[in-house]
Specification:
The chain is an alpha+beta fold and 499 residues long. The chain has four domains: 4-151, 2-Layer Sandwich (Beta Polymerase, domain 2); 153-235, Orthogonal Bundle (Hydrophobic Seed Protein); 239-442, no CATH class; 450-498, no CATH class. It has helices at 4-8, 18-28, 40-46, 62-72, 109-114, 135-138, 145-151, 161-164, 168-179, 185-194, 203-215, 219-228, 232-235, 255-270, 289-295, 305-315, 320-323, 337-351, 356-368, 371-374, 383-393, 397-412, 418-437, 439-442, 450-457, 463-477, 484-498, and strands at residues 35-38, 53-58, 76-81, 86-93, 96-104, 124-126, 139-140, 153-154, 182-183, 298-300, 303-304, 325-326, 332-333. Strand 12 (325-326) and strand 13 (332-333) form a beta hairpin.
Amino acid sequence: MTNLVEERLQIYTPEEASPLLARLREILTGRSVDCYVVGGFIRDGLLGRLNSDIDIVVSGDALPIASYISGALQAKLVPLDDINQVFRVVVRLDTGIWYLDFASMRGSIEEDLGNRDFTVNAIAIKLQNLEGKNIEENMVDPCDGQRDLNDGIIRAIGDSCFWEDPARLLRAIRFAATHGFTIETGTEALIRRDCRLITTVAAERLLIDLSHILESPRTYQSLRSMDLLGLLDPLMPELSSTKDVAQPKEHFWNVFDHSMETVAEVERLLRQREDSDQDDLLTSVPWTPELVQHFTQEIAGGRTRGAVLKLAALLHDVGKPGTKTMEQDGRMRFLGHPHEGAAIATDLMGRLRLSNREIKMVQLMTEHHMRPGYLVGEDMPTQRAIYRYFRDTADVGIDTLFLGLADHLAARGPTLDPDEWRKHTETMRYMLSKHFEEESTMVPPRLIDGHVLIEKLGLTPGPQIGELLEAVREAQAAGQINTAEEALDFVHKQLERYK
């Protein structure tokens, strides 16, 4: 790996942070307290990356310092950890929102760094030296963190690293994912030894690291690492039952590996298309500015649609083990697995503290993940079929189309039939064109409402009215009716059928 640290020392401090750091030095001048900037801000700065979280350790009690800084900057003070005395100052500037986390130094600065998680996070520099000329000389690096940054390695500090804070188990996977680093073999052995401790960590803390993993371009690789290191089963035990569950001959992998490969295919489909010339399968998949905007839309907690789609890809077949049957003719079936899987995924995501909206999205995608494949045939889907699809999938219709493509790729694997793939992508392209270009057809304007049916036809309020209005909308989407008069006539005929 290129020697990143030496190359980038000259751009070490992000320009956006300079005014805030200068103001901090000004405020603290004259106070007899040692202040060191540590952790992610130093790590990412050495890699030439911006980090808006600035961790500061101070000699003595951190609370008075944090309180003094928040007052001087007219910023909000938030206690983060009462036990370890960590306090956050939230600063809003023209350059964005900055988070200053103050903690009391544990012993000397070298001793404090020796109690941290990974070597790449155990580098410090005094606040007043942060933008000096001799940055390298002023660094405190007792664990050789710069060496591991250069080599792209995540290395735990000490054998008790994960005993002291089991949240570090998933954090190691996160840092490897977000930085493209490799976890050192000794650290992997420690994770395997301590993997069951992950169950003692609060779900809210785990979700922070899981979110970064899902947002990274290495989600598939990270999930595979979690499985190999023993973290996936205790974190998502529902997936363990999918291992070694065989599938029909149309599937190349068992249920678990198929689910993993579906995540990989989602990443492939969502990849920026600069490299599409090197991937022939991507050339037939629609990719427009509207789709880029769609999948980068934030849903909750900094997680985007793309991240939620990866989670749906991982969980879409989790209902198969409980629904597997062998028919008398030897056929293997999984009847009802989408609905069974949606219920299991809902419970799992609730336990991990994902938002209600994300849970509903994954529930819908899981329930309907087979629908896109059913719409593939010799002819394009009818207007009525397209209307029903987008009606039933609500705001995850586009997402489910991409899940369907990823599912197909992951089912066939190296045995993929190019002609079948072309049919899938052409059908998807057609449905997307109808969705984007003919939204007035997909969600047609209402021709009549319940009040009209009660007034004109003498119907009484009840479920029947809702059923009739939905039938009207479906017929309208199919182009069978276009006016209020035609809608009333249509309802008359529907009522005749009920008699």
